[in-house]
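Morning F.,

Quick status update on the modeling queue. The single chain you submitted on Monday has been processed. Sequence for confirmation:
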Amino acid sequence: MVRALLAAGWAVTVSDLDAGRVQRLVDEGAKPAGSPADLAACDVLLLAVSDDAAVTAVLEGDDDGEGWLAAGASAGGGGGDRLVVVHSTVLPATAVRLEEVARDRGVALLDAPVSGGAERAERGDLTVFVGGEPDAVELGRPLLDAVGSRVLHVGPAGAGAATKLANQLMMLSALAGAHEAVELAAAYQVDEATVLDAVSSSTGGSWVASNWGFFDATSAAYDAAGTPRRERPWSKDLFEVVEAARSADLRLPVAALLSQVLADRVEAHAERASRGDGS
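Structure tokens below.
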């Protein structure tokens, strides 16, 4: 997303635990945040971190120091309207609570998770699900339009997170079904490529089936980056779906089952693919 913002002409200050990633973006025109004060001086903070705990730590602080909300208030920001855009996939309840905390400090907050993958992110072609107040959405619209080709204001704070989790449940349910389908076909001597080609023009076709290699490639990228398996979407996002359903007093038996069984299938398939044995 930083590359998309740079391409659109935005001045971007970056911070990441991976110094190599920061340097690559600096080489492309971004400015490194040399200290927390550099981030505190920014009027707009875009967050794309691993989970709810990381988002909360950045905004509210932890044992290592104060959060951006307090630091920015002390620093006075850059003098303009202050805005937080949370691109991470978090629980709706987390988004609602943090929006209230930010508002109490005079800061607007949008929960704006994205869908589309890394390649679409680089070219500013994501779908963005935005939850927040209309005035905050308009404040963030120029930035959102730089990272997304489709920016949807879906409701108040928490609505963006809920829409993203709904998307993940639909996509990951299709992924689980596809894994079982190719396994069934293989038991009757139909190889994976053949069954995927067959369904491509049939009622069983789906984005998942048409982009079958996406998940192997994504898993490999996570491996290369050292991303723990519990933080990958087929693990983390499904657990968040289950938790969000529990908070809303909903029973989602399919999601509950998938949260227990899907991750192992995805990772095992990716490992076979990396050995050249994707079938």
